[in-house]
Amino acid sequence: xxxxxxxxxxxxxxxxxxxxxxxxxxxxxxxxxxxxxxxxxxxxxxxxxxxxxxxxxxxxxxxxxxxxxxxxxxx
Amino acid sequence: xxxxxxxxxxxxxxxxxxxxxxxxxxxxxxxxxxxxxxxxxxxxxxxxxxxxxxxxxxxxxxxxxxxxxxxxxxxxxxxxxxxxxxxxxxxxxxxxxxxxxxxxxxxxxxxxxxxxxxxxxxxxxxxxxxxxxxxxxxxxxxxxxxxxxxxxxxxxxxxxxxxxxxxxxxxxxxxxxxxxxxxxxxxxxxxxxxxxxxxxxxxxxxxxxxxxxxxxxxxxxxxxxxxxxxxxxxxxxxxxxxxxxxxxxxxxxxxxxxxxxxxxxxxxxxxxxxxxxxxxxxxxxxxxxxxxxxxxxxxxxxxxxxxxxxxxxxxxxxxxxxxxxxxxxxxxx
Lengths: 75, 333
Known about the structure:
The structure holds two protein chains of two kinds. Chain A is mostly helical. Chain A has helices at about 5-10, 35-50, 55-60, 65-75.
């Protein structure tokens, strides 16, 4: 999976946030729709798409979508 | 020898919390969003003066009435709950007296969460196979609503209170197949009420709010969502595979999967991960939410009523619970 594909998959887990707001440098925790349920959706998406296991701490330690992508693929 | 589920019923408390009430308490939620994401429209909760034992007694009385069960034939009673009436004595003793069951019976409480029905079923099967009992009243009941902080959006949305009652016997509608279990106590902290037990008898008054504004307190139920999700993703495929092997059956040969009914989100995730077709994956959380140890028996009652389970239906049930402890069983109707 490429970074751009990851950004698209990340965006698909959100219902209300306009897709153009999602780029590799998006600081996802600042999005209004970010919350405990979207966090779970992202963990599940990473499991399904990358077959990698990320934790709540990994989400806390990532600022941008690219940070999370790099962290996930390094596992 | 075989052990069977003979009769099965359930009871939900009268007080209903709908999505409109939750959306009112948590304006960032909407009714539509809760239903779309979690598949739950209503959940039932107990009154302050109503306990899990009360729900279990109501479930048993419903069972006796619906199935014309002669309660004098009950020769063992198991009460599965994490919400006993008292620290001691055993709640099943109180239930024996309230239901007017014979005094010549054995009773025990089983303290387990979402895996509780499957674990209790294994104990009941063991009692049948050992010749110790022939008509076991198996009760599950839970009241997580009593442990929730009022600002706990996630848990208040997901969980509902409820109870089930089954008779496990030497004859019945579903033969109880082989089981698979697992336990990992290193996950205990991820779904816990820390105070009120012997370790911390008194409240610790240590409430904080996490990154998402959710309450985190030793005095209320705490769930670490990401950790619980990862535990589910790790263990469900493993236990599903093992229980199928122990029953010498392939996943494709299962007619209906009645897993622990956590919510729509978790159900969809599990179904996709295990590659189970939608029409073989039974969902039953819309009107009762996650009733912990009662979700599987409640779903079985609905599946019997709506014709999803018929004679000959092979059912696989798997549940993951706090502790962590998880388990699975095949049921042959």
